[in-house]
Amino acid sequence: MIIKEITIENFRSYYGVNTIKFNDGLMIFIGDNGDGKTTFFEALEWLFDTSKQNLDLRLISEKKILELPEFESEVLRVSMTFDHDGEKIVEKSFSFSKDANNEIKTSNFQFKGFENEGAERVPIQGGRLLDRCFEAAIRKYCLFKGEENLNVFNNPDALNYLIETFSNIRQFEPYYNGEDDTSGFTDYAEYQSRKAFEKAMKSDKQNSQQEKDLSSKLDLLRKDLSDIRQRLKSNRENATNYSTKLNEIENSKEASELLKAINERLKSLREKKTQTEKHINEEYSIKLLDDMWILGGFSSIFEEFQQKVSLFSREKRKLEREEDKLKGKQELAKEIAEGIIPLSPNIPDKISMQEMIKDEFCKVCGRDAKEGTDAYDFMVNKLNDLIKSQQPIEKETEKQLFPNSFLRELEQKSSNLEYNQAEINNLINTIRDTIEFNEARKADTNKIQESIDIEEENKKKLLAQNDGLTEEQLQNAYENIKNWWDYKGQAEKQVVILEKEESEKQKELEKYQEEYNNLAKGSVADTYRKIHSALDKIKNAFKNAKEKNTQDFLFQLEDRANQYLERLNIDGFYGIIKIIKSADGAARIALQDRNDTFISSPNQALKTTMYMSVLFAVSDLTALKRDNDYPLIFDAPTSSFSPQKESDFFKVISDINKQCIIFTKSFLTENGMLDNNKIDSQNCTIYRMEKQRPFSNLDLSTIQTKLTLIKE
Amino acid sequence: MNNKDKMLQLVLSDEKLNSFYEFNADDFPTVEDALNSENPIVVAVAKIIEGVAGSSDRSIFKETYNEVINYLNQNIL
Amino acid sequence: MAKDTLYDVWGRRNPQFEIHFEETLLRQFTEYGGGSVESMSSKGKIFGAGYELYIYAFFIGLYANKQKELAGETKGLGQPIQFWGNLDSKKLRKAYPKLREYIFTALLAKTDDLDLIALEKGEITERKAIDYLIDTMEKYSNYGFHKIEEKLKESPNYFYKNTGFLDMILDLVQTTKEKDEAEVIEDL
Fold first, then answer.
1. For residue A420, what are the contacts with CB-CB under 8 A and spacing of at least 6?
2. What is the H or E stretch that residue A693 is in?
3. Residue A514: is its pLDDT beyond 90?
4. Nearest residue on chain C to A301, alpha-carbon basis
5. Count of A–B CB contacts within 8 Å?
6. What percent of chain C clears pLDDT 90, i.e. is strictly above it?
7. Using CA atoms, how far apart are residues B12 and B35, in angstroms rounded to an integer?
8. How many domains, chain C?
9. Which residues of chain A have a CB within 8 Å of the CB of B70?
10. How many CB atoms lie within 10 A of CB A368?
11. Which of A393, B12, B46, C22 could bridge across to B34 with cysteines, CB 3.0–4.6 Å?
12. Can you tell me the distance from the alpha carbon of A310 to that of A411, in angstroms, rounded to the nearest whole number?
């Protein structure tokens, strides 16, 4: 089957009629997340669904709905034209319209097909046509939505499905159907001939007693053997199951350890970040007041204040002295004449004065002031003036020149605040330092956050690589191991015991069977014996033939898969694909290297090429069996590939003689533009899929997928 | 080589069968060839394959069985 | 009875501001109209009581060294100056009573109309002296408020970044410093 053309009309982001023509080789659709790739898939899945009639409103293009005038109707349609022993068409559609309440109503569901019979085009029911040409079993191996869905053997029934669908195994069913199923001809023949033999034996009066003994022994033994075989089967299954589980855990043990390490790093990084953030305090506006940062520029103003106070003080003292002069104090007059204005009485203070007098040393100018000198007398007088000024004021009838003493208050203020001047002067530096500190802590926090982001990314990658094991499952790996070892051990021990029993019983059975057969020799029953023996052996031969058929099929599959694997990994390491069938019929795809060692954790890119190789092989076998090839449609299979590997990958696929449709994000640069270099180096048809601009991510009715052919 | 022939080959290739009854699977590429063989087991296998012919019908089984039994009765050594 | 200091007299006053700033500035940046200073963080306002923005506006005017006469209708803030900065230090804020003293000294430095000698002689009352100081205070703050409003019109989010208020002050301080340095050079 080769897809020729697909039309999608009004299906979700595919507004209006969108038709794409396909050739029979590789075709690439380039689109980013949300551009319409998955919707394309879903349109096809909707088309191929033969199980129900789906007229879901949510499938309809929002843009179309918005534009739809009342009472008019439009159509949602997906159709595919394909070649399968002649050109055929399958189409599914329904109509929709808007009623008076602006509600959408759907109707007229149709699922039809057309095929060519001679020159005529004959209609046929859509479901029937699909079941004939492209039934579900095949579709399973054709449509793959996402890289994680490529592991075709994730489903335990998958291998049996494959074998049943694509090998000749069905043919064997009428002849031999399996150990538990005696519906095949050879079972029938063996049973009948045995009965005939036993009947003949019984009717031979000569040996009737021995015959009775032996035949009852044989019956018992056969029953026992059957029981033992049952128990063997179930124990073997258990052993395999736990073995598989343990293997999976082995693989994830490494991942589990890595995960533990990552989580530990994350914990410590987050703690570090919290600690660092604690030190950041950017409440700068508050600091203006609470820490008085607002005084950063205050120095000059404070100086102005101090100068004003100083000026005020001098002026006051000048006036006071002038006043005193008028009252006739001689010593002061003399000093004024000499042009020196004395200091205020309380400067220096009393304690300092007393100390200097006692030491007979002026500590302001640093010179001796021995008793009896002018300097000493001056100090003593000054101290007396100070003491006098501190005495309670005598009631004077005279009016004072300066009744107020605000000057003192201001001087006091000046003195007090001076104490903090160094701090105030340094505020600008403090502010700058604080801001720098905060910025440095913020930078540190950002760096830590970057590290956190990287670790989270690593964690995501790790979980993705482990076939979607959840974090919890990986973490519980260790707990499960012990239990599973025990169960596996028990089952294996049982198997050994039972095998021994089986073998003994078998020997016993054979012994008695031989005795029984010997009894037959020389009698009429002998011919019956021979016939039964032949039919028994023929039955086993059919059984083995069936097994071999399955083996051959798997070898064929493996062989072809490995050929593809080599092509897809031409420049790198690839290993050998092995398809391993377990006792319960499930299978898994594993990779071995040349020394037959299993590669337990191939990287994602290698895994992808592995699965795709198997899929190509399955497709080959399908083509062989059905004389009809089928297309392979992949959604973003190469997201884990390096850019170079991707380029090579697409080139190899385009050389494979298959219709292959791939949706991908590759060929886009970081800012979502087409990487023309890469595109030029490819040799196949390429479409660009993108949202029509302008659009709003919040408004579905603006979303419309636009398809542009960019390379033929 | 059609599917019946393939099945014949697979059955005749069974070692236990061909060593006990002494015949060579390569000598009988088709069901036709097997039917004409002198080895009664080979003929029996061919008769089974032809007779059942992919059917699971009980009456077909009975018929085929009787044919094979009669044949073997007369020809088995 | 001990006589009141100038500082105390000044502390009992309640300076005025142009009433339209209540709507445009005080309500936006302060709790003016309700709540204690300490709880302001839960309401998302940057400052607590209205006086906090008033203080800020004052320093803008002071550092720019520009005054603007009050015009139109005016009103007073909720609390007299003596209570400014007396915060309950238990929560997210710290008390800053000393800041009042600095404001006081700035006013004294910058109020040329006040004749200190006359005050000391008793020729003018304390009340009158403080009137002069309050007048200076109001004019500086008024200039500051106008400047803040201008900035807001220019750039509505300016004060919502955490360095907004700080930057406006720093800009003025730097310019003044440069001006001073330039003058020094000139003198040389």
1. C98
2. none
3. no
4. C106
5. 81
6. 54
7. 13
8. 1
9. none
10. 11
11. B46
12. 8
Question: Could you tell me if residue C150 is inside a domain?
Answer: yes
Start-to-end CA span in chain C (Å): 53
E strands, A162-212, in order: none
The whole model's pTM is what? 0.52
Q: Which residues on neighbouring strands pair with residue A687, listed in sequence order? A: A29, A709
ipTM of this predicted structure: 0.95
Closest CA to A248 of A613, A641, A580: A580
What are the tokens at A295? 């005084």
Nearest to A221, CA basis, from A31, A421, A502, A480 = A502
In a domain, C1, yes or no: no
Contact status, residue B44 vs residue B12, Cβ threshold 8 Å:
no
Coil/strand/helix, residue A135:
coil
In A646-701 the beta strands, taken as DSSP E runs, fall at 660-664, 685-691
Mean pLDDT of A8-18: 92
Mean of all residue pLDDT scores within chain B: 89
Name the token pair of C62: 């002071």
The confidence score (pLDDT) of residue A177 equals: 84
The minimum CA-CA distance between C108 and chain A, rounded to whole Å, is 7
- Amino acid symbol at A328: G
**Chains in contact with C, where contact requires at least 3 CB pairs less than 8 Å apart:** A
pLDDT in tens, A403-426: 888 888 898 888 888 888 888 888
- Among A290, A413, A435, the residue with its CB nearest the CB of C101 is A413
Chains B and A touch (3+ CB pairs under 8 A): yes
> Which chains reach chain B with 3 or more Cβ–Cβ distances below 8 angstroms?
A
* Cβ burial A374-402 (10 Å sphere, 16+ → b, else e): ebbeebeebbeebeeeeeeeeeeeeeeeb
Summarised one tens digit per residue, pLDDT across range A289-318 is: 999 999 998 999 999 999 999 999 898 888
pLDDT for A543-578, tens place per residue?
999 888 888 888 888 999 898 888 887 767 778 888
For chain B, which residues make up each domain, given as ranges? 3-75
Residues of A in contact with C98 (CB under 8 A): 292, 420
Complete domains list, chain A, with CATH:
2-134+630-711 (3.40.50.300)
Q: How far is C46 from chain A (nearest CA, A)?
A: 7
Predicted pLDDT at C42: 47
For C176, the domain range is: 6-187
Q: Please give the structure tokens belonging to residue A483.
A: 């239990």
Interface contact B19, partner A, CB < 8 A? no
Phi first, then psi, for residue B69 (nearest 5°) are -60, -50
CB A591 within 8 A of CB A610: yes
pLDDT at residue A643, as a whole number: 76
CA distance A125 to A113: 6
Specify the pLDDT at position A137.
73
- Nearest-by-Cβ selection for A292 from C63, C98, C170: C98
User: Do B20 and A537 form a contact (C-beta atoms < 8 A)?
Assistant: yes
Both structure tokens of A675: 């990487």
Q: Is A603 at the interface with chain B, CB within 8 A?
A: no
User: Prior bond to A348 cis, omega within 30?
Assistant: yes
Give the three-state DSSP class for A124: strand
